[in-house]
Amino acid sequence: MGTQTDEPLYARVMRRPRTCSALETLLAMGFPHSRALKALVSTAEKGVEEACEWLFSHLSDPSLDAPLPREFVLYLCPSGPLEENLMDFWRSCPSNPALAIPPHITLCQFFPCPDEAVSPLLSSLGNLAERLQPSFPQALSLHLVTAAAFLGLFVRDDQADVLRSLAGEFSTTATGIADVQVEPHRKQLHLTLAYQLQSTERAQAERLARCLDLFLPAAWHLRLYSRDLRYAGQETLRVLYSYYPQNDDELELIPGDFIFISPGNSTEPISCSEGWLAGISHLSGLSGFFPENYTERAHEAATWLLHRSYPMCEEIEGREMEKRKGDMAIPPPIPPHSFNGQTGDLQLHLTVIRHGERVDVTFGRHWLARNLDSNGTYIPTDLNLPPSLPVRPAGHRAQQLDPPLTRIGQLQAQLTGEAMRDKRVPVDAVFCSPALRCVQTAHYIIKGLGSVGLTPCVEPGLFEWMHWLRGGGSGGTSSASAPGEAGGSGGAEGSSGVLLSHPWMGAADLAAAGLPVDENYRPLISPPSLSPCESYEDFIKRIDCTARELMALCRARGCHSVLFIGHAASLEACTRPLRRLPPRPQREFVMNVRKVPYLGLCSIRELSSGSSRSWALVSPPIPPLSHGPNPTFSWSQVLCDP
């Protein structure tokens, strides 16, 4: 018999293998040490799979083997209701450069750190955060400080000393690890609200800042970010649409990627047909030319990498929050919808939404002809086409000039309504453009809301720029490749270029199609008064006057939460004049409008002070709606042998 032991035989045979680190795994896969380490640092050490994906996407990156360290920075960031309140403030100040970075208190300046020192640096920061967490202030006290070109929230002196001590210890620890030089923030610790504001926006920004509720619950997190130092100070663009290179010097565009361009590379608006820029892809590191209108402006911070986030204190609510208020003279925030105590007037809230996906943009200008049989009967050949078309007195020509939504467009609208219902967004009145796609969008949003008895009011004054109906070319507003909101169909005009009788459906026809509208509403602008030769200035004036008249009507009726459903241009045309801002240059306006997707929305709120009123953009009540492209699939071409 064998010798007895305390350890079972199977345990001695089946030893658990030692777990390999991510770096060891990458090295075993054959990657060089420098590349493997760079991949892990560039993906915040999320794992082998992410590191491999990064390496494969950067195989052609000319700087892949360059010994370039990343730059790191240490911030203290709020989360919870206070962060949401701050984000609302920033969205109301669109030209404020402070909104390029998430709300934060800077504890140290940017510093380079070699790849091999990142892992021990993160470990030391974690140990430091765990050790100092018990002594960290349970709630930071902030107070507003204003100057000629600056707005900020400053930390109380005794609490600022605690934060400086933390930054100092981190600096000492980092120097001891790999001689990394970290410079703690020497100035008064603060959270920047705004700087470099235009004189016309300064008063409004300060008024909004004084409405911030600095006593809202907040959890504060110690966060270590990094960025590629090669792109510091570069302009950043976000890719919206796919583009496959047609020439060797062109850059492939992948939605969600970021492109870095030199400052001033795109200072002047360029037409879509000529707008090519040179840049470097964040995803691959490759450089080349790309079409500018496939991208949109983004903040550099969108490309930063979050390595670690350590909670230093939790949210405080209830009575403990009341204790913090003390004698600090900071006015309470303005409620979203409330009566002004001095004037008795309602403070209005307006949400502007673009219609859903339209048939002619998705299936082309000849969509109808391709779905009519020899007898002229409509037979849909794609699941995304509407199963039937509404009966229209003008027949097929009206269907072509005033196209409906796709089935996806209907679903987009209903999802938006359901999201508003789930967020308990009140809707007191709905006004929509007379275009069928807008009336349908209003119908399905109301259906998603579940608001029985709420019917949209059709207002021709909210219709799109008439110039685009005449085939105005550069007026592109579709979310993809269509040349204009009119879908490139040439518009409702005859050979003489004169607009024909409008193709919109009347209230009776809409009701017969299952799209009831308010038949008692009397439009502000009649269809015949819409000029086919409308200039850009006249369009902006028409939309502004319509919006103001409708808001005055809602105020008189006691409605304070209003919904406009229109076109891509409606979002800016309805809100920019209310904010007392001049119209953008026409070309810049067109480029900006192209970036509004289907069901894109914005919200603007009225701020009343005594007898004066002003408006400010605020965070929309629901998140955005995104989905990927799904091209037509031909099984015979793909699967059948030639």
Explain what the structure shows.
With 642 residues, the protein is of the alpha+beta class. It has four domains: 21-57; 70-230 and 304-318, Cyclic Phosphodiesterase, Chain: A (Alpha-Beta Complex); 234-302, SH3 type barrels (Roll); 349-618, Phosphoglycerate mutase-like (Rossmann fold, 3-Layer(aba) Sandwich), CATH 3.40.50. The protein is 30% helix and 17% strand. It is built from 19 helices and 19 strands. A six-stranded mixed β-sheet has the order 16-15-17-14-18-19. Strands 1, 2, 3, 7 and 13 form a five-stranded antiparallel β-sheet that branches. A hairpin with a 2-residue loop joins strand 18 (601-609) and strand 19 (612-618).
Note the main attributes of this structure.
642 residues; 6-stranded mixed beta sheet; alpha+beta; 5-stranded antiparallel beta sheet; SH3 type barrels; globular; single chain; Cyclic Phosphodiesterase, Chain: A
Radius of gyration: 29 Å
N-end to C-end Cα span: 73 Å
Instruction: Give the helix proportion (percent range).
Output: 25-40%
Domains, number: 4
Overall form: globular
Please describe the biggest sheet, giving its number of strands, its sense, and whether it closes into a barrel. Answer: 6 strands, mixed
Classified in CATH, the superfamily of the largest domain is Phosphoglycerate mutase-like
CATH topology of the largest domain: Rossmann fold
At the first level of CATH, the class of the largest domain is Alpha Beta
Order of strands, widest sheet: 16-15-17-14-18-19
Q: Specify the CATH architecture of the largest domain.
A: 3-Layer(aba) Sandwich
Mean pLDDT: 81
Q: Count every beta strand, where a strand is a DSSP E run of 2 or more residues.
A: 19
Q: Structural class, please?
A: alpha+beta
Number of helices: 19
Spans where pLDDT lies below 50 across 5 or more residues: 266-273, 317-345, 471-484, 486-501
Proportion of residues in extended strands: 15-25%
